[in-house]
Records
---
Amino acid sequence: MSKILVIGATSLVGQRLRDIVPQAAFTTRKPKQPNDLFLDLMHPQAFEGEGFAHVIVTSPLWLISEAVLEALWAQGMKRIVAFSSTSRFSKTYSPQPEERRVVELLSEAEARIEAFCATHDVDWTILRPTLIYDEGRDQNVSRIAATIDRLGVFPVCGRASGLRQPVHARDLAQAALGVLSTDATANRAYDLSGGETLSYREMVARIFASKGRPARILSLPEWAWRLGFGVLGVLRPGSALKGNVHMALRMNTDLVFDHTAARRDFGYDPGIFKPEFTAGADPRGS
């Protein structure tokens, strides 16, 4: 395989790629390791990488501008694998303007990469994960674990019956490498869900179990969430608290995607949801 360049050394997937392909080069604004390269995505013209035919993008996709693509192509890019998100579809009609804006940015970024590659003889693959987790690093599962440690209980909205498919960053890193080694994945997009589908409530229960605790899940009705965040919004006007109530209400919405195509084309085989938190440890990591 040709030399690999990973854009986004500090992202969840980027950190896992560093574990499994330490010989790859990683871009960052603060190089700390021998194979780190400086890249400011806002000013990519200064990038001095060379000979990286294979590029994996794990940073926020909307940061990959036309100028970034031009800089990578000038240094030899012939294949790009870029991580987007299934949020592009699941949050299209979100009541939160910020989330709809992210959907727009992701859609534009995907289209920009496809169009650029079509005119520059570069093969592309877009990967869209579902809920990504990595113990102590992510803002989803690890945040739930932190709340459990702090309160000893986790509040949910109603039955919290919405289906989820959490996928570990390690599985996504392996997926990116699988894509690079499989010609059939060129110029295609794939949804990458986790190895099993479970309700939000069951997901929370698994996190309790991973910490050696009995599942103490407090079900609050929708009106209580609306009232509570409404009061907080009055006490703290201008904050992002209003958005949090929509996150709570989504606990009863299914967010499910099919990864059959990924399994067929490059052997994608994610694990079941079994987070590993050390009992009593800070789930936010160091």
---
Amino acid sequence: MKIAYHDSYTHPLPADHRFPMLKYELIPAQLLREGVITHEQLFEPQPATEEVILLTHTANYWQKLEGQTLTPREQRKIGFPQSPALTYREIVIARGTIDIALHALDHGIGFNVAGGTHHAFADHGEGFCLLNDFAIAANYLLHRQHIKQALVLDLDVHQGNGTAAIFADTPQVYTFSMHGAHNYPFHKETSDWDIPLADGMDTATYLQLLEPALPRLINRVKPDIVFYLSGVDILDTDKFGKLKVTPQGCRERDEMVFHALKKHDIPCAVAMGGGYSTHIKDIVNAHCNTFKAGISIYGY
């Protein structure tokens, strides 16, 4: 099993955004300390190439990122001030997701400690996302003919608006998003299948909606690979999530997903997505539970 992790996942970010990003250091540290993974399973991805990025993003937008010429308005929409380090971080994350997807095709599952940058559109960034790593990886696999059909399974509390827009006219990538109806982004795009969730939804109701959706998706899409965005901002401790899913419920969600995919021998590439609980330990524990569930069910 391979896990993508790079120092750039944390260090380029502005100081006022560092707290929620500490998880990128703490997740692998906790998994190593608990003996869930070994150092040999961690790898540092290289940056994605321009050729690969341009399979998904427009040349004009990529030139702005590379040349540091985003306008102030474009930077505000992203939420970060531009910097070469931040652009480098995004292209490393993108390559990490490609690599774990390739690994999953051969070995069943792979994880990126970061990733799930689903608010990035082909021609602009939004919501702390500059480049869309799942879209880049899916287009890479399709372009190289490693797959014929992909499913993006987005269970972050925020709709995967950028992913939905990028693949709106691409039947080879089916987009599914189960997200807060009244949460960011306030203008929703149209995924192939959206399930909007009411504020305050509890664990039982959440899982009752997800459970029947999974076999329907598998039978409808018949994916060669699933890109699973396992955001933990569904937690009742999350500052912005507006849901009431318990930590145990979040783990049951992950187990439900992995059991459904493993039952059909479907490879899974996992990215962590969002998590904004007040206490960092709640975020890290929930993300680590995703790793534990996937490793246990896929047999590593």
---
Amino acid sequence: MMQDEEMRARPITTERLIEDLADRIAAYSRQDWVRVAVDGAPATHPADLADALVEPLRVRGRGTLRVSSWDFLRPASLRFEYGKQDPDAYYDDWLDANALTREVLAPLDPGGSGKVLPKLWDPVKDRATRTPYTMVAPGTILLLDGTLLLGRWLPLEFTVHLRLSPAALERRVTDAWTIPAFLRYEQEVAPASVADVAVSVDRPHHPALIEEP
């Protein structure tokens, strides 16, 4: 895992970051589905970056499908088995990675059916969404946002990690009880090292690309 003092971060504007990511993603084959994940703690707003990529990709001739991992959480009875503020359960048990793979990612494997369920579970109402399946055209880019996504062996072509340093986690994470889960993520997965693109967002309006020494 890269320690903070070992990281090199190159400042980049948000606009340039979005354009650069769109260029890289759009370069994938137009005949194949492309599964992209934007990963980060909720305080980094990964959904906002995934949303921001939709229009630049459209301009580049690529259709998109937006999916959020928050629509693939396990039922409350499973998520909260050890209480509502257990960081290990948050890390290990909240996301139904098998359902996300089965309903969204695996159908977009090469030779897959292309039949995707964009939403499975409403975590607020704690019930199935009853969202219909959708057929995804070849060449469509899946933009998946979520938290703690890396290191789960999800089948993905391209990954972006939005990183907060431990000090920034302390400042910006509103649910302080989740911080041990993110520190564990750093230790066990080192997401900034395994992602295709890692971005430091300690200063929200001044991102910086993380480059390994």
---
Amino acid sequence: MTDVRQESLVSLLGGRGGALDASLPPLAFVAGWLIWGHSIGAGAVVAVLCGVVIGVIRFVRGEKPRAVILSVLLVVAAALIALYTGRVEDFFLIQLLSNVASALAWAGSIALRWPLLGVVVGTLLGQKTRWRRDPALLRAYSVASWAWVGQYVLRVAVFTPLWLEAQVIWLGTLRAVLSWPLQIVCIAVSGWLLRRALPAGHPGFRHPQDSADGPQER
């Protein structure tokens, strides 16, 4: 039985909902900034209100309060940074730096043989660290994790020059374009890489095997 379909990985990792919600406050910030005469304060208020509304909707849907509060606090922090520096483009600074940190963390996890894709999927499936005792699965997670490194590197490459040139409208637009659409592509590609990297006959990422069991690496 093979259970490494791309669709199962997309479903497991949550699809587009969270990433889509995260792209709305930046768009609201840019809209408020434009409508109220390039006022950073107005853009910040609109963005925070948008984040609060999204947080309330998530909470009503039954999502964890901690995740809801964190998402709102990130919007507030981004707004405060822009207000403090007086540079409208700095609203996107947290997003830029978080992508730099994420790219380094995912690449580092591969180098340390603790690929973060395996950590995330193993945790969601309640496997703890069993997947690391499966050499074939460990290698497959390492290969598939490079798709996530690429996702973050692409965002950094796009956002950095726009931030340096204070291209606020483009920052807001591409922040949305490179949120859930790119994340869905990343999950699909990592699912494909995971499937390709596993040897024939392997039961899939839901069924890790000890090194003494079953098929090993090619």
